[in-house]
Specification:
single chain, two-stranded antiparallel sheet, 4-stranded mixed β-sheet, globular, alpha+beta
């Protein structure tokens, strides 16, 4: 019951215009279960570092859509993120446990402009 209530509450937040971005790995059972609750699945084998048109990743896993209409975000030849529109908002799953680590966004002497722009685009749509 509590799990369903949590999912319903998330959907209510998103319906009214909230964007929620969740990042995790395929070897994290809590992330896998959470993703499955929304009709997606995470691959069992890590893909590692990948560079794509929209974003770069250092510890990617493939994520697939089981039942929902959604937008796949592809890096290389693999879907590593999925955007699901719900009402006025969006729910985004990034199958990369380290995406929000500093090295993916910026470091002491560099900035990953592509990833910073990707994050900005999620909040501006």
């Amino acid at each position: 019951m509590a799990e369903r209530l949590s999912k319903r509450r998330i959907i209510e937040f998103v319906k009214h215009g909230t964007t929620i971005v969740v990042s995790g790995a395929g070897d994290n059972p809590h992330f896998v279960e959470f993703v499955q609750g929304f009709g997606f699945s995470v691959g069992k084998v890590p893909l590692g570092a990948m560079q794509g048109e929209l974003l770069n990743t250092y510890s990617a896993w493939e994520i697939t859509n089981e039942v929902n209409e959604s937008q796949s975000i592809v890096t290389g030849a693999h879907t590593v993120a999925i955007e699901q529109r719900i009402g006025k908002g969006r729910l985004v799953f990034l199958a990369d446990s380290g995406f929000f680590y500093s090295k993916n966004i910026e470091g002491a002497d560099h900035r990953d402009h592509k990833n910073a722009q990707f994050i900005s685009s999620l909040t501006m749509r």
